[in-house]
Amino acid sequence: MKASLPYKYITSVKNGKHYVVFDYKDHSGKRKRKWVNTKLPEKCSKKALKEAVEAIVAEFDKSITEGEIAVKSASTVPYAVMSDEGASNMLLGDFFSEWLTYIKPNVARTTHLCYRKISNRYMEYINENYPNLTLGQVNHNHIQNFLNYKLDNGCKGSSIKQYYLTLHSAFAYAVKMELIPKHPMDKLAVPRADRHEATFYNADELNELFKVFKDDKLELVVNIAAYYGLRRCEILGLRWDAIDFKNKTITIQRKIVSDYDDNGEMKLYVETRLKTNSTRRTLPLIPHIEEMLLDKKKMEAKFKKACGNSYNKEFDGFICRDNLGNMISPSYVTQHFHYIVTKSGMKHLRFHDLRHSCASLLLANDIPMKAIQEWLGHSNFAITANLYSHLEYNAKVNSAETIARVLGGDPAPKSEPDKTAEKKTATKKSTAKTASDTAPKKTRGRKKKSDNPEGTGESQRSTL
């Protein structure tokens, strides 16, 4: 889009349809906005969307040329229409509404929901402390005071960082669209997030957890979480077509998330856009999970036949459903897991911490960090290392022993000597000695010079 044009336009999604949104000034200098429906659904090909946008823009240009739409000329509005002071007079609440609409097609539903929550909390603070604040009036003090307010009210450093990043992204959009001349957060430093220490169950505690959830609605969900370390949304997103019983594989390729619909009601949505590309992965089918899945498949067929038309077929094909075919929601998993763990008297743990428990057991059994990254589906090695590096105690012990040996100090204490290795060494020596003693001696022929140790250096050669 050229800056010399007397208007700007973006594509946005509203009510499940793609729109082209034009932003321009009329002859009097008043800011105008025009929404043009492409008549294409939210899920359409990029090629189709591009062709529709080009046609709409061409039609808009024609309307300006023929005088149907009065637009202030580019010569009187240098660089861009939206750089004018009128744009920055937009109320901050209206700006966040525009930004959330703009980014919706390009971010995951869960990310958009997080942005909405943070924007709403920020606007609650602004409306209470700085009523009628416009976009052009926002400065770093308004944002710094908000972050300080959240910290004073017990908000964790990691949450503060999320607030910072969300607001930074929003105002970066304002700068990009030339609504404001500069970023109001340039003078702020990124808040330092607290290091997250992962909580987890050991093997004995996990086995106890499996007993607690025996015959519970979440029994299969809890087992998959512990064995595979999958995220909550990934487990709920598993369908039967993701399980290959012949080749013994399980594929993570979709997720179930909850969000508000246009009527403000919470609904479940199926998404194929996963968190990162590495999240989409295929793993070996563990025999214990395979057995549970086969039992689940039999029970599902039994209840589907018994319930008849009353069986819920909305999410047909998904694995994690109750006996009536109703989908298990993400919120139910979190709440019910907390309830059962608390009721049983076990150590308090979030459902997501089963993912950490899986990683800790793999580390404890000397599985390389890189392999754990691929198993969990982390986008890069640094995420895995930052979360679980403090659990790699065996590697640290080996490092201590190595540096002590190299520098000539006392070696680090070992937990237990390797008696098996010593026994094997002793056995080899004994076998070698026996073989030497029982070897037949030469009784004929001339005595070789090499048979005499003093006659050659061969027998005196070092074996190091």
Give a brief rundown of this model.
By secondary structure, the chain is mainly alpha-helical. 46% of the residues lie in helices and 11% in strands.
Write the layout of secondary structure elements.
Layout (H helix, E strand, L loop, with lengths): L6 E8 L2 E9 L5 E11 L4 H20 L19 H4 L3 H12 L5 H21 L10 H13 L4 H20 L26 H10 L6 H10 L3 H5 L6 E2 L4 E4 L2 E6 L5 E6 L9 E4 L2 H21 L22 H15 L8 H12 L4 H8 L4 H8 L4 H14 L12 H19 L27
Antiparallel strand pairs: 1-2, 2-3, 4-5, 5-8, 6-7
Helix pairs in contact: 3-4, 5-6, 8-10, 8-12, 13-14
CATH homology group of the largest domain: Intergrase catalytic core
* Helix-strand topology string: EEEHHHHHHHHHEEEEEHHHHHHH
Structural class: mainly alpha
Look at the structure and give the mean pLDDT.
78
Strand content: 5-15%
Query: In DSSP terms, counting alpha (H) and pi (I) runs of 4 or more, how many helices?
Result: 16
Q: What's the CATH architecture of the largest domain?
A: Orthogonal Bundle
Predict the CATH topology of the largest domain.
hpI Integrase, Chain A
Q: What is the distance, rounded to the nearest whole angstrom, between the alpha carbons of the first and last residues?
A: 75 Å
> What is the domain total for the residues?
3
Identify the CATH class of the largest domain. Answer: Mainly Alpha
Low-confidence stretches: 74-86, 417-464
Q: Tell me the radius of gyration.
A: 34 Å
Total E-strand runs: 8
Strand order of the largest sheet: 1-2-3
Main sheet: strands, sense, barrel:
3 strands, antiparallel
Shape: globular
Classify the helix fraction into a percent range.
Answer: 40-55%
